[in-house]
Write a structure and sequence with these properties.
By secondary structure, this protein is mainly α. The protein has twelve helices and no strands. The protein has one domain. 43% of the residues are buried.
Length: 264
């Protein structure tokens, strides 16, 4: 039973990683866009958007490049994890997935392999961006880097499951792009990546509180700034963030496994 799950899942994971590395344009695009965004927006607002140290600001006195660093990390994971799932549509169109489904393997292996491959790519690129932390003034230690890696893995699993869930019934990559652009940007914008919830309009605060990605961004901030309480003002607690993060990942993967069983 384990061979019917982990062996095909590992094969699909390897295929996702190898295909990604062979397509250099995807490597540059997935990491380059968030990097340019962070440098341009962060540098432009660095002095004009100073976050104070009071409780109302939830910024702890950091400048905007430091504040946006956590959001950019999540942006890399989000876009890489989601758009890696375009391979689900391509594999079905080329007949590869039909061959996998016809083989004597568990349907969950398809989900597991795709999700693990997507998460590996997303977290790997986020960790490359993490090397810029000292240049932005973001404190980084071995402990915080290890903690952050664990947080990003769980966030990546949930977002990869979401991407699989949306991609599986899709017939074209154009439709996938349209749905993702309509859904992804608001999800990221209203996650606390660009601005703290404190001080926002009441209805925006409600949306941010209901957005599961909010707790992913908050978890990243907890990992980066666990020694600076002023930088964590206004954020959900570590326990709440962990519960939402893990719960979202489990729900997405379970739903993705079920949709494969129905539409396979």
């Amino acid at each position: 039973m384990n061979a019917g799950l982990w062996l095909p899942a590992g094969t699909l994971w390897q295929r996702e990683v190898v295909r990604f590395l062979r397509q250099r344009s995807r490597v540059v695009g997935a990491l380059g866009t968030p990097l340019v965004f962070w440098m341009v927006v962060g540098s432009g607002l660095r002095n004009s958007f100073q976050l104070g140290g009071g409780a109302a600001s939830a910024g702890g006195g950091m400048n905007y490049m430091q504040y946006a660093f956590a959001g950019t990390l999540v942006m890399i994971v989000l876009f890489t994890a989601i758009f890696s799932m375009i391979s689900v549509i391509e594999d079905r169109r080329e007949g590869f997935l039909q061959a996998v489904i016809a083989a004597p393997v568990r349907r969950g292996a398809i989900v597991l392999g795709k999700v693990l491959g997507s998460t590996t790519l997303a977290v790997g690129q986020a960790l490359l961006f993490l090397l810029l932390a000292p240049l932005s003034g973001v404190p980084l230690s071995v402990g915080s880097a290890l903690l952050l890696t664990g947080v990003l893995i769980v966030v990546g699993l949930g977002l990869s499951g979401l991407g699989f869930l949306i991609a599986w019934p899709m017939e074209s990559t154009q439709g996938f792009h349209a749905v993702m652009n309509l859904f992804l940007l608001p999800m990221w914008l209203l996650s606390g990546a660009l601005f703290p919830s404190t001080g926002a309009s009441g209805w925006i605060q409600w949306i941010m509180a209901l957005n599961p990605l909010t707790y992913g961004v908050a978890s990243v901030r907890h990992a980066l700034y666990h020694g600076d309480p002023g930088a964590l003002l206004g954020l959900p607690s570590v326990g709440v963030c962990a519960a939402v993060r893990v719960g979202f990942g489990v729900v997405m993967i379970v739903f993705a496994s079920r949709i494969v069983g129905r539409h396979g």
